[in-house]
Design goal:
two-stranded parallel ribbon; Collagenase (Catalytic Domain); alpha/beta
Length: about 220
């Protein structure tokens, strides 16, 4: 018998009254909420039997191409297919200066972050050291769907408001240690970590290889309850 409350207490420390959908599943009330691909019971089994990644979402600009709920749902689906659970710890609206709507990401190389990235990634309130923060912004310079370069000891990524439904999962995959698996014109469009654009993914949900799953599970950011 699986106790949802016991798993939730162990994984995220929630006690007392809480909403399973909001505080555990990370979904907001939405009239266009997509079908949940993994039920609460399936998600709980993943957390009980395997590992998970905890993410915090900090919103500078709300996504426009796909709802945040759908992006979370798609990430949970592709990770869950390979035995990795996803916990959304918090979703916070950041009231920042207009300068942070569009973020200079330079060459998007880890540990070579720009001043704007460094300042943005300072917003880690309520985040533990082994948790990932994803910042939703209007755009990056140079333009991209996202960037997973982060300052030392502040793991996270940037996702732009016009990103695809798979960009969240893709960028967190980079944070967990996954590189791109291809480049144009030799595109592997059935893979999550394609470098040819997640809008071009075919036959969703996209795949991960066993070696990629092993890399994710071996990350210090992927933990057991």
């Amino acid at each position: 018998m699986i106790s949802l409350r016991d798993i939730v207490r162990r994984c995220v420390g929630l006690v007392g009254n809480f909403s399973l959908l909001r505080d555990f599943y990370g979904l907001r009330s939405s009239p266009n909420l997509p079908p949940i691909q993994l039920s609460l019971i399936q998600q709980t089994r993943l957390l009980r039997d395997g590992q998970h990644v905890s993410i915090h979402l900090k919103i500078v600009t709300n996504p426009t191409s796909f709802s945040l709920d759908r992006m979370i749902n798609s990430m949970r689906q592709v990770y869950g297919n390979f035995g990795i659970g996803v916990i959304v710890r918090t979703i916070e609206n950041l009231n920042l200066a207009p300068d942070f709507l569009d973020i200079d990401v330079g060459n998007c190389v880890r540990d070579q972050t720009t001043n704007e990235q460094n300042q943005l990634f300072n917003n880690r309130n309520n985040v533990d050291t082994n948790e990932v923060v994803v910042y939703l912004v209007r755009s990056t310079n140079p333009p991209s769907n996202g960037c997973a370069a982060f300052p030392t000891n502040r793991p996270g990524a940037i996702v732009v408001r016009t990103a695809s439904e798979w960009t969240l999962a893709h960028e967190v995959g980079h944070v967990l240690g996954l590189p791109h698996v291809d480049a144009s014109p030799n595109c592997l469009l059935d893979r999550l970590m394609t470098g040819c654009g997640t809008f071009n993914i075919t036959n969703p949900p996209p795949d991960l290889t066993q070696s990629e799953v092993d890399t994710m599970n071996n990350s210090q950011l992927t933990i057991s309850c």
